[in-house]
Amino acid sequence: xxxxxxxxxxxxxxxxxxxxxxxxxxxxxxxxxxxxxxxxxxxxxxxxxxxxxxxxxxxxxxxxxxxxxxxxxxxxxxxxxxxxxxxxxxxxxxxxxxxxxxxxxxxxxxxxxxxxxxxxxxxxxxxxxxxxxxxxxxxxxxxxxxxxxxxxxxxxxxxxxxxxxxxxxxxxxxxxxxxxxxxxxxxxxxxxxxxxxxxxxxxxxxxxxxxxxxxxxxxxxxxxxxxxxxxxxxxxxxxxxxxxxxxxxxxxxxxxxxxxxxxxxxxxxxxxxxxxxxxxxxxxxxxxxxxxxxxxxxxxxx
Length: 302
Known about the structure:
The protein is α+β, with helices and mostly antiparallel strands. It has ten helices and twelve strands.
């Protein structure tokens, strides 16, 4: 089974798809430039020059998520950027990205990123990206592995020849870019194998490639991250019968943002994050590195 970054099959003619993709890209650009404003579904549909019903359906088909969830992801992505690259107060960032309540903003941020704004700001100044790279590369095991028994999902993650970074596969309970992963596994020399999941069922998977950077803030923001789209899968009690191979490609203008917790979970497992008060501890998910299972902060998807 091949998980490429190509567009899903839409029930429309190619010329119509091009028009719809341009309309969706126009809305995304409008939202990105005006994150501090309120945006209703009707407002977005007006920018797309479509009816609200038609726009909502087309947006979901092209991006994989609803317009409202996409807007949530854009706001949190911009909040991350401001937290990691400026000294603005969190309350000012809250208002700048369209929230009217600091409490609501903090709750949304922790539910999507997994960590509080204060915690990730401290991370950017305290973690050495060179040391992080060294630890991740030391953890990689022998290459050439096509399947590790027992496992639920296995395969290859292919990247362009010029890619320099670390790749990983993540398993999600649903297709939303706001979802928190159930489990993650690093690629070892282009191959990955995810140990059995706790319960069989329907899931979504995607692969990402995090590029090495000299500055920690750039590594966490990943402006040049490679990725695939979310792929629906059904895992039986015995796992999949054939591998899932991924081909990493650059993000496209209409792609949903990458789930914002992934880079932070990766750093957490190898170098840790600054301490936070107990109320910020939000429960464990699983992170697989090829050397065993490590706890990772996680919360249910919204």
